[in-house]
Amino acid sequence: MDHPVALFLYRFKENVMQVSKIALALTAGAALVAASASFAAVPAAVDNPAPVATQAQSQAQSWAPAQQNANTKITRAQVRQELVDAEHNGQLDALRSLYRGS
User: pTM above 0.85?
Assistant: First the structure.
């Protein structure tokens, strides 16, 4: 290793290996974080999806907008009554279970 070119190539190979190791470690870490975040977002009812799907389907079938025209204005009393109705028939519970945070 008394030639400058040989010494340069030797050091260059060492640096490339170190950079490769760092890049591999960062890539593996990013993949681990992405995988853990996606698994955390999966609902607990995935093991038994039938009851949740059935409930969601029945809620979707029973839901009907109060006003067909989006430009039609409704009063606060009507909004409150729709909220009470949604609480009584289980629509709010279905939405909470569907959109619960991770």
Answer: no
